[in-house]
Design brief:
Part of ribonuclease P, a protein complex that generates mature tRNA molecules by cleaving their 5'-ends. By secondary structure, this protein is α+β, with helices and mostly antiparallel strands. About 35% of the residues lie in helices and about 30% in strands. α1 crosses α2.
Length: about 120
Amino acid sequence: MKALPPSLRKRKRYIAFRFIGTGNIEKSEVSDVLKNTTIQLFGELNAPKLRLIEFDGEAGMVMCEHSEVDKIKITLTLIEEINGKKVIPLILGVAGTIKSCRRKYLEVLRNADSANGI
């Protein structure tokens, strides 16, 4: 079976986000909450396909199709609690590649100084 040519593949987007809150949050907890929230909001048939690429306890990145970015943003903003820990979600930005998402949003966040207000 031949692979699809690049022009026929679905375009991906990478959404960088951050959870402001107390306590450590595991990657598996975030993945479970994201999947459950999307199913609750859009149903099993219309739920957008997503994959948690990375999460370091505070910030992370989700992959989805380009047409489902808005649904993922809505899902992220509606998360208030992860395993009993209150969180405030913050969407940092959307990029077309993993590399640019890390460079534009996640590395800037890691290198940011709290005095800058970020």
